[in-house]
């Protein structure tokens, strides 16, 4: 999917390597290219934001990189939804946490 605007880095390339970018597993020069792309391309920025949110959620839940397989499959299912361009429910998975603030 593309926003129709010409970019120095192709949208498909950005989305293919999104995880490497998120995990900082790419050279600084490539990171810069991606950051430039996200500034120019809101569809990719949106996808990046969603995947980053999922990643953060996984980190917070588990406190480690070794994610339990059931949670991983849940998250991957969500990512598949995002990737396929389907509307992802606005409701965040984090919203299921019980509200205990009012004592
Ligand atoms: Zn793009």
From TrEMBL:
It comes from the Bacteria. It holds the Pfam family zf-HC2. InterPro entries: Anit_sigma_mycothiol_RsrA, Znf_put. Residues 11-44 form the Putative zinc-finger domain. This is Mycothiol system anti-sigma-R factor. It comes from Streptomyces aureus.
């Amino acid at each position: 999917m593309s926003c129709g605007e010409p970019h120095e880095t192709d949208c498909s390339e950005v989305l293919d390597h999104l995880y490497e970018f998120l995990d900082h597993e790419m050279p600084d020069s490539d990171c810069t290219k991606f950051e430039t792309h996200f500034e120019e391309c809101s569809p990719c920025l949106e996808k990046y934001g969603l995947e980053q949110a999922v990643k953060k959620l996984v980190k917070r839940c588990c406190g480690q990189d070794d994610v339990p397989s059931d949670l991983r499959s849940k998250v991957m299912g969500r990512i598949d939804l995002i990737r396929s361009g389907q509307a992802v429910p606005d409701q965040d998975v984090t919203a299921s946490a019980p509200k205990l603030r009012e004592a």
